[in-house]
Amino acid sequence: MSQDRVILGKAGxxxxxxxxxxxGYAIVARRYRRRGGELDIIARDGATLVFVEVKARDxxxxxxxxxxxxxxxxxxxxxLALDYMMxxxxxxxxxxxxxVAIHFEAGRPTVEVFQGAFDATHD
Length: 123
Fold this sequence. Notes:
Trna Endonuclease, Chain: A, domain 1; single chain; alpha+beta; about 120 residues
């Protein structure tokens, strides 16, 4: 991965955290890494545990940022979320999957939060 993409991803995650906190989420963890991949952000929205995938783009020529969360990516995120919940003894905790899409255009980023963007039972 190029250094520019790493910088873009980090800036996107920072913006996503700020936006989620502005909306009342409490950030629990960032970059939860396991052998099967990484969860960008884990947060609480009230009693609900939220697993957040962040997609940052510096343009729209390759489509909308949120469209990059494919079925394969959703399955990976779901497996990692289950791993996190098991390791932290949270099996009875309600949870959901959100996507934060960020577009860096014209010197000003736009941030969109898609609550309940997908669930663990569907592709």
